[in-house]
Amino acid sequence: MSDFALCIIAWQRLYGRHGLPWQGSRDPYRVWLSEIMLQQTQVTTVIPYFERFIARFPDVQSLAAAEQDEVLAHWSGLGYYSRARNLHAAAQRVMRDFGGEFPSQLAEIMDLPGIGRSTAGAIAAFCFGERAAILDGNVKRVLVRYFGVCEYPGLRATEMRLWELAESMLPDTEIDVYTQAMMDMGAMLCTRTRPHCDKCPVAETCVAQITGQVALLPAARPGSRSGKPQKTAQFVILHHAGRVWLEQRPDTGIWGGLWSFPELRDTDDTLAVCRDTWRLDVIEVRDRPSFRHVFSHFGLTILPRWVEIAQLPLTVAEQGGWWAAPEEALAAAIPVPVRKILMQGAA
């Protein structure tokens, strides 16, 4: 076993994370669920979602048997909803192709919807003791700094090099402890900003630390600019007799598969669209306070328009939507901004 592996395994036993609700189990369902939830999401955010999800879907069988809408409702607020759709589809594949037993081979795990090489490696290492590497964002940062990789990690050639480095450092034993150690190092010590190099067990041999490049690595995307793109959209809250109109968003794009209010461009005339395009008998349009919702890659300013209508159009059943009472809507699979608007009501 390399000195690197020995050092971080010893560190993990003393200082790493040990009390997370998905730890202490070799159940691949729990590990898989936690790994999917932890993609692009902080541990503190994931924990309550994980516990609620496990309470409702305790095993792959119950998840596979559920309706997608219910799965999305339990995911609502975590974001990146394609993760939930893939989770559901993968559970159904496990039931159909593997008789309900989660596959143990790395290639078979990777073949399931929504499971990439790194997630498959984590499941294989934690649950089946397979000597498999992982390369999530935290682990990439550790390896980039430790080996002084100056190229942008998102480049294919750089990523392939990092995979080679990750595999070269794997120990022959204690692969589960080592894998957790790599995750914990990136999350707790080798953080994106203000890393705790003074507490790092491998700082003395870290190239970035030795050469004074910790703050410069990982390298930024070539040609990247500071700040996120900004967009603006109207949310049209159609209201009649105590109910609001919700329509299901396409599976692709933001909030895929979730129930939301109709959306217009910020330059559209809300009243004209409601009357002339949607043929609605509008009583009143009220502007609600705008607010911002931030995604990983852009910021969205939402302009809520509360539209009171006199009667339901005759073609409602053909529009693929749903007139929901507020309590029904809040229990459905809805995005966070929709939930915020519903909680505020029409005032």
**Computed structural class:** alpha+beta
Bulk shape: globular
Largest sheet: 8 strands, mixed
Indicate the proportion of strand residues: 5-15%
Low-pLDDT stretches are none
H and E order = HHHHHHHHHHHHEEEEHEEEEHH
Name the average pLDDT. 92
Estimate the helix proportion, in percent: 40-55%
- Please report the distance between the alpha carbons of the first and last residues: 65 Å
The total of helices stands at 15
What can be said about this structure in brief?
By secondary structure, the chain is α+β, with helices and mostly antiparallel strands. The chain has 15 helices and eight strands. It is globular, with a radius of gyration of 24 Å.
Task: Give structural notes.
This protein has 347 residues and is an alpha+beta fold. It has helices spanning 3-15, 28-37, 43-56, 60-65, 68-75, 82-98, 106-110, 117-128, 137-147, 156-168, 175-189, 207-211, 270-277, 326-331, 336-344, and strands spanning 230-240, 243-248, 259-260, 263-265, 282-287, 291-294, 299-309, 321-324. Strands 1, 2, 3, 4, 5, 6, 7 and 8 form an eight-stranded mixed beta sheet that branches. α2 (28-37) crosses α3 (43-56) and α9 crosses α11 (175-189). The N and C termini lie far apart (65 Å). The mean pLDDT is 92.
